[in-house]
């Protein structure tokens, strides 16, 4: 394998990952997820990107961590597509935006509010960040099979963690709090930091993406 065959950031080459890729944020979650595969093996580890591959029901599948936020998630998706992947599932945690959603409930994100900057470098803000319907349906079925409470709906994708958790100390406090109230009133189920960019990049590249 030539060095130039490897993608610049994720350091993965064609043939090393499957068409189906799970995308956690934390690199520390890649190996535990991969241990659920048959024959798991470490493919590459570089910066925030840690990739493992293995098999599920005889199909080559992979997991690549993206780090925190939309810019690094977009890079991961771009480079994974270049090496042959075409179906992506973001897996991770999020913060509830509704009072009836409890810690430990499962969420499936069918669309995302583009309250971040990365996706605007791909498509105008009027273009919706929407998950692939087949991936979303499969995630909802799988989530409900666990017996846990499942919420399917819209997330808010943001760039600033502390803008959400400590908005009162920000110079933009009033605007942040007004927008936060609007997302809640509109029925958004959660707040996270990657889905909108993943959905917009996936739309641009004509691949499939979902999130849970």
Can you walk through the features of this model?
InterPro entries: Nucleoside_phosphorylase_CS, Nucleoside_phosphorylase_d, Nucleoside_phosphorylase_sf. One of its GO terms (molecular function) is pentosyltransferase activity. This protein is an alpha/beta fold. The chain folds into two domains: 1-85, Rossmann fold; 95-203, 3-Layer(aba) Sandwich (Rossmann fold), CATH 3.40.50.1580. The protein has helices at 30-34, 70-82, 133-144, 161-165, 173-185, 195-205, and strands spanning 20-23, 38-46, 49-56, 59-64, 87-90, 95-96, 106-115, 129-130, 150-158, 190-192, 208-211. The strands form two sheets. Strands 2-3-4-1-5-11 form a six-stranded mixed beta sheet, sandwiched between helices. A hairpin with a 2-residue loop joins strand 2 (38-46) and strand 3 (49-56). Helix 2 runs parallel beside helix 6. It is globular and about 50 Å long. The model has no long low-confidence stretch (mean pLDDT 96).
Strand order, biggest sheet? Answer: 2-3-4-1-5-11
* Known CATH architecture of the largest domain: 3-Layer(aba) Sandwich
Compute the gyration radius: what is it?
17 Å
Q: Please report the total strand number as a whole number.
A: 11
Instruction: Sketch the topology as an H/E string, one letter per element.
Output: EHEEEHEEEEHEHHEHE
- What's the helix count? 6
The total domain count is 2
Q: Which stretches are low in confidence, meaning pLDDT under 50 for 5 or more residues running? A: none
Let me know the CATH homologous superfamily of the largest domain: Nucleoside phosphorylase domain
**Overall outline:** globular
CATH class assignment of the largest domain: Alpha Beta
Describe the sheet with the most strands: 6 strands, mixed
The percent range for strand residues is: 25-35%
Topology-level CATH name of the largest domain: Rossmann fold
Instruction: Give the fraction of residues assigned to helices.
Output: 25-40%
Mean pLDDT: 96
Distance between the termini: 34 Å
Classification by helices and strands: alpha/beta
